[in-house]
Amino acid sequence: MAPRFDQDPDLAGHLALLPSSAKCKGMFFRDKFELAKNHGSPEEICRAAGVEAHRYLPFLDYSMHDNLRITVEVARRAHPQLPLGEGLRRLGRHSDGRRIRIRR
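^ thats the sequence. predicted structure below, dont judge the formating
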């Protein structure tokens, strides 16, 4: 089945499928905060996502559940005029590590 970018994904469903022990590196958090720097501080984004704010160090491990929640919040803030699915797709297009500027 093809993805539906015009709809909001089921965040709770995706979190339920993700193992509780899943981890990712801090660099992925920092990249998302960099993408959203014009849309709120890391602390504001974490609070809105329901995640405890940390000083995310690039090579330390952090919760993948938190990463997913933060990704969704960044997509909402960076592309508020678009459906969440499309906002997530646009964030994913920039996941190759290049620094980009998000258009408002």
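Residues 99-104 have pLDDT under 50 and may be disordered.
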